[in-house]
Amino acid sequence: MPPAKKRTRSYDPVKIRTAVLTQFGHLRAAVAGLTPEQLALPTRLGDWTVRELAAHVTMAVESVSRNLDREEPAKAELTVVDWPFATAARAGDIDDGTRRLAETHPDLDALFAETAQRLAGKLEDAPGTRLLATRTGAMTLADHLVTRTVELVVHTDDLNAAVPGPDIPYDRQALAACTRVLADALAAKAPGGSTEVRVPPYAVVQCVAGPRHTRGTPPNVVETDPLTWIRLATGRTDWAQALRNAEVSASGERADLSAWLPLMR
Question: Residue 223: beta bridge partners?
Fold first, then answer.
């Protein structure tokens, strides 16, 4: 008997819109309180400073408004699960655009305010089914907003790592969606049912080819917390380091996920 086809995860569009606006608000408030010295600090993203990282956050959110202004494409090309694997090809363009934006907008608070106002206005009447011609490929507005939770949560973690003190909070819905997107991407990249990956309280997925588990305790289990999982999936932490630091537990001969990580950078 062929394995059962996995159902595509669905996301509540109202909760996702609220999560995007809330997490962007958390970032805006934190960046507004940074000093020039803090904005000049290095980050773990190559040679980007905190200023460039903050500018990039606005660019990631502005993509929603910008693409709603563009002509609607004929059909969707990407789903939420496809998106993590499509981002690498645009890395060079994103880096160039981020540097230009940071240079031309010295008043970051004004940039955040303008971005937030445009986003809220554009989302008022836009249906989730509206197709957007995004950098990575055409996708629905509803799906694109889910990907924005990944951008916002990942870069919130980057800013918290770069600047001691602000402790920018994570919106629960944004953190949950980000965790689930990356867990489902792992299941797509390493299809199978021999290993269970648990990221409580938000996600459990089956992955990795091999004997399929059907009942009882799975023979191969990986478990970690949401932020560690997100760091593993995006290359902020490597598998060996997470094991050494007891940030992830892995049991079973098929519980080593290092061959499939990171999923995106």
Answer: 198, 249
Q: Among 253, 35, 259, 2, which Cα is nearest to 164's?
A: 35
How far apart are the C-alpha atoms of 98 and 258, rounded to whole Å? 30
Tell me how far apart the alpha carbons of residues 184 and 193 are, in angstroms, rounded to a whole number.
13
pLDDT value of position 213: 59
Which residue, among 215, 223, 79, has the nearest Cα to 147 in the 3D structure?
79
Alpha carbons 163 and 42: distance in angstroms, whole number? 9
CB-based contacts of 6: which residues, under 8 Å, 6+ apart? 187
pLDDT band at 88 (very low <50, low <70, confident <90, very high): confident
Instruction: Choose among 119, 114, 105, 104: nearest CA to 69.
Output: 119
Distance CA 41, CA 20 (A): 26
Q: Where are the alpha helices (DSSP H) in the chain?
A: 13-32, 36-39, 50-69, 83-86, 91-104, 108-123, 141-162, 172-189, 226-233, 239-244
Q: Return the CA Rg of the chain.
A: 19
Share of the chain above pLDDT 70, in %: 96
Quick one: average pLDDT of 27-41?
A: 97
pTM of the model: 0.94
| pLDDT digit string, tens, across residues 97-142 | 999 999 999 999 999 999 999 999 999 999 999 999 999 999 999 9
pLDDT for 230 beyond 50: yes
